[in-house]
Amino acid sequence: MTHSGLSRPPASETFQILTKRGERLREMSARFPWPKNVWMGVSIEDARVVNRAVDLASVPASVRFLSCEPLIGPLESLPLENIDWVIVGGESGPRSREMKASWVKSIRHQCRKQRVASFFKQWGGVRKDLTGRLMDGRTYDEMPRKIEGLSTVTA
């Protein structure tokens, strides 16, 4: 996104920007204005790329989020400091890889412990319409909310 694209987003809309290039984001973040309605996120599929969360944490966006989708491996030690929201979802499509419930529950537990909002998007699979988004009989739809500069969890 260009500098001009970030500098003039309509205040009535929220923009969620997602990248896999956490290091580049960290390097360039000082060059951009960060309006309150621009949320910045990084993709983290497995432990090999967990460092993207550390890069994101240094960005001055009003909301910083992790998109753990498609989740293709366990994330036992997510660095959640300065992170406001974590989205978790499985891979979908003909060659989708299985996402284990224990991986999802571990992330949810880490988020609760650190008071970070978590959103469970889907189990994924070849027929995601059949696998749905229930975990332990319910949905998890927490969203980040900022109040006077503090991150709080809303459901």
Jot down its keywords.
alpha/beta, 5-stranded parallel β-sheet
Counted by DSSP, the helix tally is 5
Q: How big is the Rg?
A: 16 Å
Gap from first CA to last CA: 31 Å
Major sheet size, sense and barrel closure: 5 strands, parallel
- Oligomeric category: single chain
Give the total of domains.
Answer: 1
Instruction: Please report the total strand number as a whole number.
Output: 7
- Could you say which overall geometry the principal axes of the C-alpha atoms support? globular
Strand order of the largest sheet: 1-2-3-4-5
Query: What portion of the residues fall into strands of 2 or more residues?
Result: 15-25%
What order do the SSEs take from the amino end to the carboxyl end, as H and E?
A: HEHEHEEHEHEE
Unreliable stretches, pLDDT < 50, 5 or more residues?
147-152
Helical content stands at 10-25%
Mean pLDDT: 88
Structural category = alpha/beta
Written account of the structure:
Strands 1-2-3-4-5 form a 5-stranded parallel beta sheet. The longest helix has 14 residues. Helix 2 packs parallel to helix 3. It is α/β, with parallel strands linked by helices and 155 residues long. The protein has one domain. It has 5 helices and 7 strands. The chain is globular, with a radius of gyration of 16 Å. About 4% of the residues have low confidence. It starts with a helix and ends with a strand.
Concise account of the structure shown:
The chain is of the alpha/beta class and 155 residues long.
Helix-strand layout with pairing:
Layout: H1 3-7, E1 15-19, H2 22-28, E2 38-43, H3 51-57, E3 63-68, E4 85-89, H4 101-114, E5 117-122, H5 128-131, E6 143-147, E7 150-154
Parallel strand pairs: 1-2, 2-3, 3-4, 4-5
Antiparallel strand pairs: 6-7
